[in-house]
Design a protein that fits this description.
Elements: H1 6-13, E1 21-26, E2 30-35, E3 40-44, H2 65-69, H3 77-91, H4 94-99
Antiparallel strand pairs: 1-2, 2-3
Organism: Propionibacterium acidifaciens F0233
InterPro entries: DUF4213
Protein name: PF13938 domain protein
C-alpha cells in the first residue's frame, strides 16, 4: 500500500521555511489561516478532539507554516483542519498557483 501521508509531506516540503502563520481563526464551519507571504486558506472545521492537542491553548501566530501545515496529519481532527487551511494558504497564492500551472480563466478574473 502506498504511503497515505506522502501527498501531504510533498506539499509541506515546498513551503519555504521562513513563512510563518499570521493568524488562525477556527469558526463553526470554517478554519482560516493567513500567512506572512500574503496567502489565505480555508478548510472545513472538524470540531472533534480525539487526542490531546499538540499546541493546546497556544496562539499559533508566528509558528512556522511548515509546522502548522504538518498538523494536517494529526489524529486530532480539529488540528488537522488547521493543517489543511495552512496548506491551502500557501497554494492559494497566485504565485504558487501559477508555479503549479494553474491558469486563471473566466470573466471575473480578466
Amino acid at each position: 500500500m502506498p504511503d497515505a501521508w506522502r501527498v501531504y509531506e510533498d506539499l509541506i516540503a515546498e513551503i519555504p521555511q521562513d513563512v510563518v502563520v499570521g493568524t488562525v481563526n477556527v469558526g463553526v464551519r470554517g478554519t482560516r489561516v493567513v500567512n506572512s507571504a500574503g496567502g489565505g486558506g480555508m478548510a472545513w472545521t472538524m470540531d472533534q478532539r480525539s487526542r490531546p492537542e499538540i499546541f493546546e491553548g497556544a496562539v499559533l501566530d508566528g509558528l512556522p507554516m511548515r509546522t502548522a501545515a504538518g498538523l494536517v496529519c494529526s489524529w486530532n481532527p480539529a488540528e488537522a483542519s488547521i493543517g489543511q487551511a495552512s496548506i491551502d494558504s500557501w497554494y492559494s497564492r497566485p504565485e504558487s498557483a501559477a508555479e503549479k500551472g494553474f491558469v486563471a480563466t473566466g470573466e471575473a478574473l480578466a
